[in-house]
Amino acid sequence: MNWSRRKRMPRMFVIFAAIVLPSFFLQIFAQNPEFRPVNDLSAFKKKFTTESAKVQSITSDFIQEKTLAALTEKITSTGRFWFKRNNRVRIEYQKPFTYLMIMNGDKMSVRDNEKENTIEVKSNRLFRQVNRIMIDCVQGTILDSKDFTSKVFENDHLYLLEMTPTAKSLREFFQTILLIVEKKDYSVKSIEMNEPAGDKTIISFKNKRLNEQVADTVFAL
Amino acid sequence: MNRSRIPFLLFSISWLCSGCSSDYRYMQSVESRPDCIAKLAPVQFETSWYHASVDVVGNHISGLLLIKNMPDSSYRIVFTNEAGVTFFDFGFSREGTFAVYNVIHKLDKGPVIHTLQQDFELILGLPFRNASYKTWIMNDEVFYGTRQKNGTSYFITTKDCASLRRLELGSARKRKTTVEVTGQGYPRPEKIELRHYVFDMRIKLTRFDKE
User: Which of A56, A60, A186, B60 could lock A208 by a disulfide, CB 3.0 to 4.6 Å apart?
Assistant: First the structure.
């Protein structure tokens, strides 16, 4: 494994960030047979961009469910998520383990039970890619991203964005990423990450609060 | 020879000698105690989830590790990051045969997989299943050793067989890897720390109960 040096972006963390952060930013889903293709994709893109631009902050609980298909094992973890413009994110896993990731401008901090690492964002090509994906998400332009090919579906209450990675570095980990976006406020309801071997992870957001006051200290590194 | 250099030379020779001396040189062969083997040999491992912390030559990574005891008595070992992305899925059959079910490209290197295979063999106590032992005593510890292709695997107990001290893989002269268990022990260890002595690598596992 290419174990990245401390104080630089660990590769696995970059991959973690590349997949999880965009989903949080998109504010988010599960495949549903009632979904039908969106007829006017350009209108959806425009609306998605407009509505995303209105989000200054997000505070939310999340539930993450990982299913290991071959082993019939499932593990559920819960935590809290914060976002504040620009480029400030805090993802805090609280149960059944603790893990904290903070992104603040050009720096990121990761803390597990044993260690805390602070990382310079600019030092890593993959992370620049992550940054771009994040910005695409914040600006609601993720559907224009070259890292994914996307299809958009809808039912009466939700949009479904089916994203297929084009980058080799992402294709190894994900077959598809499915986002569910609520029509009422264009916030993300859930993300489903499907792996090539059949395992899947679903992150669902609960108690979302948009544009509430979030203290800068939440993102202190 | 310059006399002033002699003390330095003697010091260097003694230091070098100590460097090549065997970690097992003071072991004395003793009779095995079948009751102690039956009591403390780590031959079972129950399904558990762990938070894993790995340090390798100055690099750090963490994630979740599932060790699953399958119905056919085989084991599966799956490592994911905290967000759920699978990095590897290894297996050991009931007979101990190793299999790679899934591994990401970055980890798919012979030496990496071989090291992890040896590490998990020791953690799971596979060398001690149906093993024949030779027994030694050194200081206040009893070494129950069984020969492997890559050296000798030991489970090491207190002199009175009250508790398991650690597991160890060693060559003829040198300790290569140790596994220490704290808190609740086998078959469902609470905390496991694996340490390599040939190169700088540690794996720390802390068990958690899934929700």
Answer: A60
